[in-house]
Each structure stands twice: as C-alpha cells, then as structure tokens.
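Lab meeting notes turned into a lecture example. A postdoc, R.K., suggested we walk through two folding results consecutively so the class can see how the record format repeats. The first protein's sequence and structure tokens come next.
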Amino acid sequence: MSKIKKVVARQVFDSRGNPTVEAEVFSKNISSSSICPSGASTGSFEAHEKRDLNKNYYEGKSVLKAVKLINTIISKKLKNQNIHNQEKIDHILLELDGTKQKTKLGANSMLAVSMAVKKLSSKIKKIPLYKNFLVRNNFKLPYPLMNIINGGAHANNGLQIQEFMIRPDGAKSFNDAIRMCFLVISNLRKILKINNLSTSVGDEGGFAPMIKDNNEALNLIKKAIVMSGYINGKDISICLDVAANELFKKNKYAIHSKKFISAKKTIKEYAKLIKKYKIKSIEDPFAENDWSSWNKLMLSINKKIQIVGDDLYVTNLERLKVGFLNQSSNAILIKLNQIGTVTETLEVIKFAQKIGFKTIISHRSGESEDTFIADLSVGTNSNQIKAGSLCRSERVAKYNQILRIEESLRNKAKMSKL
C-alpha cells in the first residue's frame, strides 16, 4: 500500500495572472502536483474559493491562507492515508471542512489536493491518468466545443452573449476535429482583418473584436465556416454560452440586445437564432434560479438541440436532480472547482450519464498548464470538452493532451456520441 507522506502547497498564478493554489502530494520519493483553476463568470451556488482579501497584498486575491491550510491541517490529516483510496481521502477533506459550500477550507485548497492525489495514484500504478477514472476500456474521445468569439464577462466589447463556439460535428477523429476548428479560426481571422476588426483575444483565446451585436458575430462565424469549405449545422455547428446570470434583472433578460425583455419573448428570440444559424447547443440560456424558463425552453425546442446547465447546476448532484425532475436541460457542464473534489465530480458525471444527459468537461477562464480535465474527459467517456480556443498555451495544452491520448489508443480511438 502506497501511503501519503506529506502534502505541500504553494501560491502560483493562473492564466489571468491571478494567484491560485498548487498542491503537491508525496509518497516516499515520488510526487504529483495539480493547480486549481478559477472562474470569472460564476454561479452563486458554486463552492467557495478561499482568498486572503487583504487589499494591500495582491489586491485581496492572494491565496496564502489556503496554502497554509494545506501545509498544516490537511497535510497532517492525510498523512499515512492510502493514496489509491480517493473516496476516503476526499471524504476526509469534506469532513475537515464541514460546510455546504466549502467555506472553511475553500474549494481551491481541497481540489488542488484531490486532483494531485488522483495523479499520484496513477503515477504509482504506472498507468495514464485517463485510465484511472470511470472507464477501463472502450474509451471515447470528446468533441471540442471551441470558443472563437468572446463577449460578456470574458471580453471588453459590447457583445451580450459570453461565448460563441464551434463544434466539429463531422469530425471522424480528434485530430480531424482540431484541424477543422483550425481552418475556421484561421479564416475568421482573415475576415476580421478584412473588416478592420481586432484579432486580439479574450480570456479563453477566442477573438474579442469590438462588435456589439450577436447577429454580427454569428454572421462572421457562419461566413468563416463556409469559407473553410464546410456546411454550417452539418460539418461544423455553432454553439453558444449565454451566461444569462449576467444578463438578468427583475425577471427580464437582455440577451439579444441591451433591452430587457420577458422570458417568453427571449425564448422566441432563441428560436429565431436556432433557425437562422442552425445553433446546436445553448449553455445557460436563463438565470440559475429561473427553473420555469428553462423548462419552457426545453419543451419548445427540437430535442436535438443541446441545452446545457452550468450556473444552473454548478456540478452539484442535488441541483442536477432538481433539474432532471424539472426537465430543465439535457446536458450538464462539469467544472471540478465548482464542487471541490474529484469524487464528488465523478458522482455527478455518473448520475448525469445514467439519466441520459450529455456531459461536457470544462475549463475555467482562469486556467493553468494543468491538463487534468483532458484526461478526465476521456476517462469518463464524456461527450464534449470545453477548453477554450486554439490559442493560449493553457487552453491548447488540453487539446494537445487528448491528441497524445488518441495516439496512444491507436485504432481503438473512437469519437464520442453527439
């Protein structure tokens, strides 16, 4: 039995240049480390992110208290635990915290440790990380949901919708999927330059041109798809992350323009977008507590359209159960740091797949070089992965890791179902 010798934490930095937690778990002379990501557009039901809040030091964003908790309390409590018993280790972390939203230890300190434990277990077993989750064989590779235009909280332009994405539905392999996305992105860059629009990028690597109208962004993407030789809605599909929490006030929404309108009218506007641009997936179309509007949208659309809950569920099993009973969506976004441990995350994925929901493993806007979610997406046979654009090394790192996994699987590599 391999036992934990100690856990060491340090403050490092995420892709936005903000402090975050890295934990390193040791067993004898071997160790593994993991870095916790951080979100900008967050749901109010997410697990708590512990920061020092000292405005005179890193403007209140430092995580030295979380680091100290790992180096003292958590390290001491996990010493001599079996590195391969992930459930027990995560249970110890949950008991140590003892709060509903991880306010005592912080989900960032807990998750950094939890992921490092899973990595070290894989290293000691001498197996790839993706083989240490739910699936043991017949691995499926996820389709990338690739961000190509940023808006909302991820950019400083006037776009209401937070992410405009493409999904290479016609891809026969992950390698092929990346090639297809590359072509569309490359052609979109050319189109933006021709139109004297900026090709600078937002937090997640998508372009952030100074445009203010959702339709203008969608027309640009549609043009890039056609220019790449693909059929929109067949070879490549346009997908949206609305992040409606940010666009909700007094039971009204300002999603399709800056004017606030009723949920009923908003649904009609979604129907127009779906028809005009052949939209295949919409994430967070309504606010996190507006269960009624989610249900009405689900009842009004074609069942082939993917409606994704992110802020709605925050990778929380109890909220997912409510959403299932309410017929709120047919897919769930999975973000490890929304819940705080690997074990809880896997429980949510298992339940989602059991009830027929699509699972989409997701990054955060504040990411790192850590490729844990790439292995998680393959190791759980998740349908899609959302890791940003084909730009910025912390995003591309995830895609590169899946390319390596695909290569190692050789002729056994198969794409997941859409």
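The second example is placed directly after the first for contrast:
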Amino acid sequence: MTAPVPQRNTLDLIGNTPLVLLKGPSEAAGCEIWGKCEFANPGASVKDRAALFIVRDAEERSELKPGGTVVEGTAGNTGIGIALVANARGYKTVIVMPDNQSKEKMDTLRALGAQLVLVPPTKFADPNHFVHTSRRIAEETEGAVWANQFDNVANRKAHIEGTAPELWEQLEGRIDGFTCAAGTGGTIAGVGMGLKAFDENVTIALTDPHGAALYSYYACGELAAEGTSVAEGIGQGRITANLEGAPIDTQFRISDEEGLEWVGRLLKEEGLCLGLSSGINVAGAIALGRKLGSGARVATILCDTGFRYLSTIYNPDWLADKGLPVFPWLRDQ
C-alpha cells in the first residue's frame, strides 16, 4: 500500500478521498458499486470541497480581504466546511441554518467558532428562508462576502476539477455510471461535467429523495414534488446556477425507507456509519447499476459521517416519531 502524500497546508487535506467497493450494494445491483468516502475530509463531508473553492474564488476576486467574514445559509455541512476553511485563512464565519437540522451540526458549528443564526424552515419563496436571510446579513455586515453555495458555480468547479478526475484515476479510466442526490446541485453537475469530459458515454443519473422536484423536472420537464423526506442537505425545488447545463441522463426517486435500509446494512455488514443522504445515494447507485447491467462500474458519494445524526436517524424515538423503521439493534436496547 502506498502511503498518503504528506501535506504542508492543512487545506490540502480537502479532497483526494478514498474510494471503496461496497460489497452488499454490488451484490444487490449485480455489478460494481463504488463509494467515494467524503466523510474522510477534515469537516467530515463532501461540502468541504465547495467551501474551499468558494473561499478561494472570493479571495481571487478580491471580494474577501484579511479579517473579513464569510456568511452562508446552509443545512449544516457547507457551514462546517466554510468555518474550517475560514479559520485556516483568518476569517470570521456567520452561518444561517434552519432550526430543524440535527443538533450535532449546530453544536459542531458553535464549537468551530462560527456565529450560528437559526431560522424556522420555510419555502424558498419566503424572504425569511435561510438563504435569503444569509444574503441580507452579508449585505449588512462590513467586510463580509456571501458564499451563495446554491448559485455560486465555484461550488461545481470543485467537483469538475477535483472529484471527477479523482474518480477517473481511481477507477483507472473505466467508469460506466455516476449518481448522487442534489442539494445545491454542485456535486451532481460538477462530477457529471468532469466525467463527461473524459468519456461522453458515462451515464450520469440524479438520485432524488421524495419531496424534491428535480426527478420530475428531468423525467418530464416540470418541477413537481411528491411526498416528503427527512434527509438533510439534499432535495431541491428549483434549477440553481450550479444545476444549469448539468448532463443528467436518467433519474431515480428513492424513499427514506429504502435509504435507511442501506444505512443500516452498510453499518452492520460493512462497518460504515453514514447519514441518510449517503443511503439514498447508494440506493440510487444500485438502481443505476441494475439498469446498466452486469459488468458495469458505478460510483456514488458517501456524503458525510453518521456521527452527525446521532440525535436523528440513530435515535429510536426520533425514528418512531417520524414513522420510520427503527434499526433492530436500537429497538432491542
């Protein structure tokens, strides 16, 4: 085994994450299902990549100056990534987050030194939505920049230049399909664009949770939602700037129950503690693998660590209250 290359800058620890063959999902799909271990980033999620590129982009455009502040509206993980990058670069951080996200994310942001502003969850059209609130705070704060992860294409650039080439190299130039869910759209669009640049024949699939509108958009051209999901950080009801031009070839809609089944199986059978968005991604990868057939190689994103959701999807009372199945080992306790 080759030892990882030593880094002289802590921000260089972002990216170059491991890729692992997932045994159970591969058997279920009848082909190879590979998971990109984004929980190995310093902030324990894929959002570290976007955070780094967004901050660097603001610096390069001279919008962010020494001692400045980065403001962002987020479900949590992007905020954690921004707080870490900002700390390393000498900036302050203000994070606006819906108050229904996991307690672990809130506690982490406070521990990192970010100023945390909690707002009620509401529709994007509402001026009090967390995205609009974060924009106003940035406009009213001297020396602040608004990260604007949903419509700042530095987000997807992180995946065009980073995640996609990493996957191509790790799979030795043989990858038949890629899928993941969309929150901002940066990951699915950026990886899709990056992989298509290597091989136009790679199938890029959207995996959408219930309650989101993109499945319907890519299936029939209309933004229409169906059902609900408790998954944090994924699900979108509009075409963000990051999603514009995304090379989506096909799409799948995955329920929370199916996603949780794979969260449970990956934990008990393969020792991976993941969040629900990862479980939904894996279920989508299985669907894509079955569509592509035996011998295919499909990759997806293992978005973040399950340790960020101990109060939610790993809490039997929370699961029962949401009408979701409780993992047997939690029920037995």
